Amino acid sequence: MEIVRSSGILLHPTSLPGPHGIGDLGDAAYQFVDYLVEAKQTLWQVLPLGPTGYGDSPYASFSTFAGNPLLINLNKLVEQGDLTQEDIADVPDFPVDQVDFGWVIYWKIPLLEKAAKNFIELADPARKSDFDAFCQEQDVWLDDYALFMAVKEHFDAKAKEEEVFGAMWSNYWDKDIALRQPAAIERWHKKEAEAIAIHKVLQYYFFQQWSQLRQYANDNGIKIIGDIPIFVAPDSVDVWANPSKFFLDDQGQPTVVAGVPPDYFSATGQLWGNPLYRWDAMAENGFQWWIDRIRSTLNVVDIIRIDHFRGFEAYWEIPADEETAINGQWIKAPGEELFNAVKQALGILPILAEDLGVITKEVEALRDEFNFPGMKVLQFAFDAKEAGSLNAANLFLPHNYGRNCVVYTGTHDNDTTTSWYQERTDEEKDLIRRYLGRPDDDIAWDFIRLALSSVARMAVIPMQDLFSLGSEARMNTPSVLGGNWSWRYREENLDEFTAIRLRDLTTLYGRDPDLWKKGEAAEGDD
To answer: How many domains would you assign to the chain?
Structure first.
């Protein structure tokens, strides 16, 4: 993929400021785009944008195609006439720096449903026609999604009354609808007709607002980088609506699940629990599900980052009844065939490969065959558990980079650079100071400078590092339940000094888009 020298910020929309308890697609999102422009940035990386459930993780969405209704801006619904100003006047005293998802859901979802009902009853013919066109455009996934969510709400309410925890479609729904028997599908369509219609309208709202925001970003020279997790959540419409494409038994339960084997960090590996794909079944129709998935994502973002890319070459298969990931095995995946099919259907693929962890030569060959940029994380370069030494094998050190990669100070799974540095050993800190050639009194910005100055074609900085924040601003701690995905910045964080500081470094190291327009910078070859 052709990428000029560029840089940007990693920020999920839920982290935007605003009065309604969670970041959304309203004014603050447009102000953030303006801030990127002011700082000469050309990339905005977001995490997955799908609807979330237990744990609030965007990597465990109810749908790989749908948008998260919690990101819908309520003020825009007032402007459209689907809500009144009085409807949203009584705003709870939400925390400013964190998202309290439970509280937000309790307050916001009824308002969204009220707006959707008003739309269904009162929208003028032009808006109704636009909605109908949206439903037709998204028919590959929208009908199944709306039915799934309506049925899920019914059984979730029942599980709550019965104090049943961990209820999913595969272990709690009535078997006829869980197994998608035609009579049950027809019956539930009639029974939940109103709820189904509401879910479709909420998706219409989301995609309408996101499309407008993305267009504003693109018009201002900002490209959106979005995520595709390689696997989908077990409690998702993706699995429920496509059982033949996953390793499930005749009751809809996974027979094998995803994870990673034991390594330096975990003696028992990681048991993720995602159902695994039946790649043979997917290949039978030319990987159409994946083609639809990537096409749909490219209608939402400009560049795709594929999470756990190594799973397209080989994945760790674990029997579903295992309690750890120890007793698994590597199974080859048809990555080359898949990406050739997608490329034939969609053309050149603007894909970044998350190639972190233990990566084999076969994985590197697959990545390089399609010219996908890989990832470099500066924190890993100096962490003794990861690499942490000055040798040619430490590919996270900038002097070992090729050009076709994207460099991060840290990712959404890392601690902030400021907090991470405080936890380093004396030996690690000494290595960092010697490599940087300066003291450690401004470590987050030292790493920002190091990323921007590297030969990597793309450099992405987590928003938290831009403001030298500590662990209170960490986005996610892997394998820890609770307290994740909730950080928000404050509007006053977007100060002019920080924008100027970032802009100056961006220009100094040849990532200023104006330099490319003037032809004053050269990309070069690997």
So the answer is: 1
